[in-house]
Amino acid sequence: MTQLLYTQLTDTPQTATYLAQATLRDILLPLILGDETEGISYWAGKQLATKFPLESIADLSQFFEQINFGQLSLKKQKKNQYFFELTGPIITKRLADFKTPDFQLEAGFMAQILEQQLQVTAEAKATVENKKRVTIFVQTDTNDPIEIPLETEAMVTMQMPEVTPIAPTEPAEPVTPVATEPTPEPTPEPEHEPVAKASFSSVANLPSRQELHRRKKH
Fold it and tell me: What torsion, rounded to 10 degrees, do the Cα atoms 177, 182, 183, 187 define?
């Protein structure tokens, strides 16, 4: 059920928005829980982690980004101590917009995940430093091993974003220029011979009407 639920959530095209998270975590929950906000948030984080068991710290970092908790990175590790830093735009925004934003939900989640991975008791604490970044310190106790219940959910297989490969473009075939016949030069029009002008006799040489009448009788 856990893997199916995780796959359904990550396949949803809608992403968590800042407005939704800030409204619920930094406005509504403090109104309801009051002074118990940090303690209950920490416990809620641990309970949430039991529903999404992760195999490695790399998976933990990826899950934090997917759930819109921020960008989680391991800065230092000693024998039983882990120092994480939580950064990203949503962290910067929450620190700027709210006086005391709560990050104990993330701390509880991380404590439970490391308990499951290391099978020893783990406790975590989130601290805001200079209103600029969030540090999450996790302390484990190798002298206090824990047994993982048989009914524990199977490890979640992380969903990697699908990247559609870009098909290589084939080089364009060279365009063969189409041979064009040379445009023939215009043939000069033949010179026309001068048109002979009709010659007219002068009016004096034309026969008179009487003469034409006389010719007609003969």
Answer: -170
